[in-house]
Specification:
Oligomer: single chain
Largest sheet: 8 strands, antiparallel
Radius of gyration: 21 Å
């Protein structure tokens, strides 16, 4: 029956189009790692996972830093050393204090990052007002996972 063949062909084309949809390639997940913080020691790992269309969850994990050290973090649009403004008010990125073993974890709800745009993570001293990327403890470009 020719109508059955056309229906089957149409269904196959729809399935093929969905399987190759560009939207399926974008995970909304982003990561960044700073291997060696300057001035203070330690390493930082940032993971960002989508929560909904407008927000994501950012998790910062710190290892090997001095104990009871307060550390500020922010995400800015652009690349390291562009001294860009944070994507949200700095107060939206909660300061973290390391434990006795020099580790700390914190998570915060942030504005969802846009696929294809460039962002970076800045780690700094919360006691300093205007921190440039060069004066920060560390900076890492954020990459999107597929």
């Amino acid at each position: 029956n020719s109508s059955t063949r056309y229906t089957n062909a149409a269904v196959a084309l729809v399935l093929l189009a969905c399987a190759h949809s560009p939207a399926s390639a974008q995970s909304g997940k982003f990561v960044a790692t700073i291997q060696n913080l300057t001035t203070i020691r330690g390493a930082v790992r940032l993971t960002i996972t989508p929560e909904n269309d407008k927000q994501s969850r950012a998790k910062v994990a710190i290892q090997g830093a001095p104990f009871e050290k307060q550390i500020a973090w922010a995400i800015a649009e652009g690349r390291c050393f562009m001294n860009a403004e944070a994507i949200m008010p700095v107060a939206a990125f909660p300061t973290v204090t390391t434990r006795l073993d020099g580790s700390a974890e914190i998570s915060a709800r942030i504005t969802r990052l846009t696929s294809g745009k460039q962002y970076y993570l800045r780690i700094s001293d919360p006691q300093k007002e205007a921190v440039t990327d060069a004066a920060a403890y560390g900076c890492a470009n954020i990459s999107e996972e597929s």
